[in-house]
Write a structure and sequence with these properties.
Blueprint (H helix, E strand, L loop, with lengths): L1 H16 L4 E4 L3 E7 L1 H13 L3 E7 L2 E2 L12 E6 L7 E4 L2 H8 L7 E4 L6 E2 L4 E3 L21 E2 L28 H15 L2 E2 L5 E3 L5 E3 L9 H15 L5 H15 L6 H26 L1 H48 L6 H42 L5 H40 L4
């Protein structure tokens, strides 16, 4: 079936290259207009061999009998339904069909492409060979290039949303003759998204200094390295909506500085590798210079967490000291009771009273530590949103949650062990020292 489908795709591509023939590909169907009779007969044989359904032939006079078509006939329309296309999947046989589908707003989230060697995923779309049924969940790129790029032309080619053009893995290999329209359009759309301006003629302007301009088209060939470079650059600029404006300005300035010759969008893509490295260095330097208050806040946070863990460690040591004193005292009571005369009436009451006081003492130390722990948890939950919202959850866990949890774990172990020992000693005192 693959060989017959390849022959069909090549035949349709050849027909679509003829400017007189109009090709329309839908999600599960195909329409070819203005065909010659010889082309129709060859096309019908290929459609039948590949298992297409609902094949119909017509001209201006209506439906035609395929067996009655001659080579001299002209202006014929062929319609057919693609075989085995599930709901929610858009199957495309030709590069012309893919190019037309990519400019639509309602492209399905799963697209089958004949001539694609292996599947790859953008943020909103999974492109795969025919027959791929892997589950896919689309998501959007949060930042829009409209907020940072000044568009002075008609804007018809400018991407309002980069989800269809940005790969989830910038280094993904994208091979196969069928996917070439997406490669070219992805480079062109992302090139527009990292420019400072799109001029009235469509030229991509990078202010610099110096000012540099690139043509909006990629040219005949898109290099794999250029595609990867511009994907990584766009990912860095638009991965964080709050930092998009700052990062976009830095990258655009570095492109203007490092790519003085201009060229096509493909040349721009090839030059973004070094520009991205320089932009990242400039960004990190800017963060260091402009975030002294942030660094001071992080230092205060580290000090606060250090003080808290030190306090928990001190409470743990105090608990251990209290338990040690209680053990020694209770053992002394037991020894004294065992060596005192059996007729001593004051010894049992005194021993039980002292044992109870020692147990209460240990319990007080435990309660004090638990109260401190709960108080610190309340304070952390309050200043987490007020002072340290700039920390993402992973970084906050690494700096705060994990160290505190480790210290709390040691404290709780000491609490349970100390409480069990204090209770056991109190019971022992009551059973031994309380005997008459």
């Amino acid at each position: 079936m693959t060989r017959s489908r390849s022959a069909l795709a090549e035949a349709i591509e050849a027909l679509a290259a003829d400017q007189d023939v109009a090709l329309t590909e839908t999600r599960d169907g195909l329409v070819l207009n203005q065909l010659h009779g010889a082309d129709v007969r060859r096309l019908l044989d290929l459609l039948v061999a590949d298992g297409w359904a609902d094949i119909s032939v017509s001209d201006e006079g209506g439906r035609m009998d395929p067996g009655a078509i001659s080579d001299e006939d002209f202006g014929i329309t062929v319609k057919a339904q693609k075989p085995g296309i599930p709901e929610g999947v858009e199957a495309l046989l030709t590069r012309a069909g893919l190019a037309s589908a990519l400019v639509r707003h309602n492209l399905a989230c799963c697209v089958w492409i004949h001539g694609l060697n292996a599947a790859f995923e953008t943020h909103s779309t999974r492109f795969a060979p025919w027959g791929d049924t892997t589950a896919f969940t689309p998501r959007d790129v949060a930042a829009s290039p409209r907020k940072v790029v000044r568009v002075l032309d008609d804007g018809t080619r400018f991407p309002n949303d980069l989800s269809r053009w940005m790969l989830r893995k910038p280094e993904a290999e994208i091979n196969g003759w069928g996917i070439e329209p997406w490669r070219k359009m992805s480079v062109e759309r992302l090139a527009q998204a990292i420019a400072n301006e799109v001029e009235p003629e469509g030229q991509l302007l990078f202010r610099g200094p110096p000012v540099t301009r690139f043509a909006p088209d990629t040219g005949p060939m898109v290099e794999a390295s250029g595609l990867e470079n511009i994907q990584e650059a766009a990912q860095w600029v638009y991965e964080n909506a709050r930092e998009t404006e700052n990062r976009h300005g830095l990258l655009a300035a570095e492109i203007a500085r490092t790519a003085l010759t201009g060229g096509t969008a493909n040349d721009l893509a090839a030059s973004t590798g070094k520009a991205l490295e320089s932009a990242k260095i400039a960004y990190n330097f800017g963060v260091t210079q402009q975030s002294k208050d942030t660094l001071k806040a992080l230092a205060d946070l580290r000090k606060a967490i250090g003080d808290e863990t030190a306090k928990l460690a001190e409470n743990t040591r105090g608990l251990a000291t209290a338990v040690t004193a209680s053990v020694v005292a209770n053992l002394g009571i037991i020894v004294a009771r065992l060596t005192a005369p059996a007729t001593s009436e004051w010894v049992p009451a005194a021993a039980i009273s002292i044992g109870l006081v020692l147990a209460v003492y240990v319990g007080t130390i435990i309660a004090s530590g638990v109260h401190f722990l709960r108080l610190q948890r309340t304070l952390r939950s309050e200043w987490r949103d007020r002072l340290y919202r700039f920390l993402d959850q992973g970084e906050y866990d690494r700096m705060v949650t994990n160290p505190v949890a480790s210290a709390e774990r040691g404290f709780w172990i000491a609490c349970f062990a100390s409480g069990a020992m204090a209770f056991g000693l109190l019971v022992s005192v009551c059973l031994i020292a309380g005997r008459v």
